[in-house]
Amino acid sequence: MAQPLVKKDDDRDDEAEYSPFMGIEKGAVLQEARVFNDPQLDPRRCSQVITKLLYLLNQGETFTKVEATEVFFAVTKLFQSKDVGLRRMLYLMIKELSPSADEVIIVTSSLMKDMNSKTDMYRANAIRVLCRITDGVLLTQIERYLKQAIVDKNPVVASAALVSGIHLLQTNPEVVKRWSNEVQEAVQSRAALVQFHALALLHQIRQNDRLAVSKLVTSLTRGTVRSPLAQCLLIRYTSQSASNSQGGDRPFYDFLEGCLRHKAEMVIFEAARAITELSGVTSRELTPAITVLQLFLSSSKPVLRFAAVRTLNKVAMTHPMAVTNCNIDMESLISDQNRSIATLAITTLLKTGNESSVDRLMKQITNFMSDIADEFKIVVVEAIRSLCLKFPLKYRSLMNFLSNILREEGGFEYKKAIVDSIVILIRDIPDAKENGLLHLCEFIEDCEFTYLSTQILHFLGIEGPKTSDPSKYIRYIYNRVHLENATVRAAAVSTLAKFGAMVDALKPRIFVLLRRCLFDSDDEVRDRATLYLNTLGGDGEVVETDKGVKEFLFGALDIPLVNLETSLRNYEASEDAFDINSVPKEVKSQPLAEKKAPGKKQPTGLGAPPAAPPTTVDAYERLLSSIPELASLGKPFKSSAPTELTEAETEYAVNVVKHIYDRHVVFQYNCTNTIPEQQLEEVSVVVDSSDAEEFGFVLSKPLRSLPYDSPGQTFVVFEKPEGVPAVGKFSNTLKFIVKEVDPNTGEADEDGVDDEYQLEELEVVSADYMQKVGISNFRNAWESLDADLERVDEYGLGPRESLAEAVNAVISLLGMQPCEGTEAVPSNSRSHTCLLSGVFIGNTRVLARLQFGLTGPKEVAMKLAVRSDDIAVSDAIHEIVASG
Amino acid sequence: YLQQACPQVKNILVLDSEGKRVAVKYYSDEDWPTNGAKEAFEKTVFTKTHKTNARTEAEVTMIDSYVIVYKFVEDLHFFVTGGEDQNELILASVLQGFFDAVGILLRGNVEKSEVLENLDLILLCLDETIDGGVPLQTDAAVLANKVASHNIDSGAPLSEQTLAQALVTAREHLTRSLLK
Questions:
Q1: For residue B68, which residues of chain A lie inside 8 Å, CB to CB?
Q2: Interface list for A 327-386 with B (CB within 8 A)
Q3: Phi then psi for A756, rounded to 5 degrees?
Q4: Which of A88, A148, A514, A691 has its CA 20 to 30 A from that of A97?
Q5: pLDDT over threshold 60, residue A678
Q6: Angle at which helices A65-76 and A101-115 pack, to 10 degrees?
């Protein structure tokens, strides 16, 4: 419509600001909508009013229920007009109003008439509108027409029906699935987009039938696919079904590789990306894909460069060597106008770079950092951190880089990323420590984030006293007491006290400073100063602080906070003081349902250790102590996570929890009866312990009755030598009496039949004797254990799938808690150090330091150093590994 | 739900040079359930892109795990948003198809006032480009033809002549893209 919708006259002089919708108002437009009711319809005018209504909706205006209904009824009158343009606007309007079911009925017949019209455009649009607003009942009425439309000669009509089918499949799958013959026919259509839409729909109809998808894909990869979009779909489906099929050969690889020579860029890219994402892709398979992506890197089109560098960036995580050929092209992208491309190029280079290129790279990045947004900077900082860990010798230039950007402007997340990185480098690269601590000290002199200041102060308190000249940090810390808010002041007081406790020579000076804090305006600051002055003792003399006091003030709280919280809640004020030793130390693994959303990063660096997941220790303890036979055994040392002893969806579901005591093991079988017509009675598990020589049967506690869908427990107790981590296999048979249940009355028959049901084996392993107990500072804990009680040995772990897989296998073999996030193995590393902590049966603290390295292709070797309070336990840990 | 199986567009935005809405269409209420969320997204997208030069070639960026391809002309900013795993070249072809179709429909005068004066054509063009997130048509000439053909019978705005002209422009465009 070339004509303006309202007269221009009034606003002529302000041409730039002119808009046909200036001063538009909902009420007035709704009034105007009355023209829809005129007996003599003016199509042009009606179209204009619809456009105004659509404009209002587009601007975020909403209609009340009453308004929407009124407009809808008025609009339906417009079906009387034969004007094609108006009809088209009418379709749009109905879709936007999304009418309710009883309103839909009003327009159904008009739309069905249009659906059978001779005008293709009417047919196509009526189908789209009707399918958008329809419900299941109406759908079955129009199904016949839709099936016809799918194979309509006109591609626009066919596409309209197919795309509608894609949407309807979500709400009415059983109806749409009946169309598969027609859709199959449409896949062969000569019209490019019809083929695309048909393929998308057909795949969705059959997606749960792997064989059918595989057949579909095979036939199409041999035939001709006309549309690039359809070809992209085919690539997706091909690589999906390739990843579903087991075995080493990839029948579809040739097809994917062939697509790299397609004429459409989107197809080439889709194929290249699919190849890089094949699981366990070899470098030979990768090469042709990398080659086309490399060509894209120097394309004049930003979207192509972006797509290529984004994909290469991902490849660099798993196959850094495969990407190094592109490094020169990638370096020229650092100056790309598009900062997203530049950032991706830099982080890719940081992943693939070698030691000699670090300095040059850092120079290029420095120029680049000043003109990108914080979110890009964080990505770069994280990449630099991993680079530094990879090339520890380069720490100086990388640390300088980090401290420089720390001084520049930036938001909290960015600053936190930098501080976290510096902290990690200090922890992992001993040479970088003093330098890094001073950078942090300078940062808190002018830091606007309370959180970062307190975290750095805490960290200084741990690391500072262990440096060659602790006194140089005091000034920075004490300045905080003068210049900051109460939270930071309190943290500074604690840090000062730590220096006083750890460095005896500094104690008199620290005491002077702490006494000044007694006059602080904040009570927390005063309280802390008072506490430290009184407990550190010695009136400020140069004396050694009592070990117990140090432990009390600064020792790690080796109890999960959640457990402590539960115990405190359960504690009732009485004569007996709260006993912190009564708090369970076991870190319970997280139930599946409460797992964090994927993609959320675990906090690393300064952040507190991940919050302990909720515990079921209490629940077990209550259950066990409620049964007299079991209560007499004492408190269990550890309760395992449940292990399933039956397949999913069998008649009886049974899992077992192993409770480990000093001299006993209790198997708790959780049974569920999934058959409504049955009631089980006298349920017990017969355990054959012939493969578990050190265990002796004590008693079995059967379950009186197990009605449908109401879980119950039966227990079996074994004894074992005291304090010994005995292992063994146990085979289990569920024994019970079955009684039929009358479905009407729900009552069980008098008579029952003896029956049994074979369960899977269960195993008591060494890890069952280990509690996962995390510690916050591994190095401190390690150094606090006697080095004479350390046992070191080396092991070849043979060929493993990957370094990460080997690390996980050893962690689960030992059943210990990984510390400081060391269970995560960077995907391209060739060596890895993992720190574990736990408490072994007999309440012996154990720490292990595992160094893994790749010795050949996939061959993993491990050096294991164990420290504990008891040399016998250190040896026991080595035995576990040696026999595992 | 279509994420894996079928290329999915999450929204198409046309904003003005101040980031204000000219015409937008969202296909995913899960990502932006309220008008407030939509406006906040538009603001972020606009502030993060408005300084870039996306006038000759379409540009691309990632914001909050969305891939966004965009192109500017005069006082108008066109955006097409897709999910993180989306093939950005497919999004770019959707953008290019819509962008060029608008160019044909407005006979090259693509600017805010023209778009607003012909908002009906722009909305119809959006409707023909994407249906519920699925690309319906990405060829600019076909798109423009579909939108314009509605007006032939009514005889009014886009006359036969302009349609012929539109097809010429379309053919020109086609040869241009072949020459590249």
A1: none
A2: 337-338, 340, 373
A3: -140, 165
A4: A148
A5: yes
A6: 20
Q: How far apart are CA B114 and CA B116, in angstroms?
A: 5
Three-class DSSP category at A178: helix
**A378: its two tokens:** 């964080």
Residue of chain A nearest B1, judged by CA positions = A170
DSSP A741: B
The rounded distance, in Å, linking the Cα atoms of A392 and A430 is: 10
Identify the pLDDT of residue A706: 86
Tell me how close the Cα of B164 comes to any Cα of chain A, in angstroms: 16
**CA–CA distance, A574 with A480 (Å, rounded to integer):** 41
By percentage, how much of chain B surpasses pLDDT 90? 67
Taking an 8 Å cut-off on Cβ atoms, the answer to whether B119 and A166 are in contact is no
Could you give the CA distance from residue A411 to residue A449 in angstroms, rounded to a whole number?
9
Residues of chain A neighbouring B79 (CB-CB closer than 8 A): none
ipTM value of the model? 0.86
- For the segment A433-475, what is each residue's pLDDT rounded down to a tens digit? 888 999 999 999 988 899 999 999 999 998 999 898 999 999 9
* Residues A654, A68: Cα–Cα separation, whole Å: 56
Q: Measured between CB atoms, which of A4, A132, A340 is closest to B117?
A: A4
- Contact state of A85 with B153 under an 8 Å Cβ cutoff: yes
Euclidean distance between CA atoms A606 and A455, whole angstroms: 6
Q: Where are the alpha helices (DSSP H) in A324-470?
A: 327-332, 339-352, 358-369, 374-390, 395-407, 412-428, 433-445, 450-463
Determine which of B75, B78, B86, B116 to mutate to test the interface with A (most A C-beta atoms within 10 Å).
B116
Confidence (pTM): 0.64
Q: Judge whether A209 is closer than 8 Å to chain B, CB to CB.
A: no
Q: Which residues contact A811 (CB under 8 A, 6 or more apart)?
A: A818, A823, A834, A836
A315 is written with which tokens? Answer: 């490849």
Instruction: Please state, in angstroms and rounded to a whole number, the distance separating the CA atoms of residues A618 and A487.
Output: 35
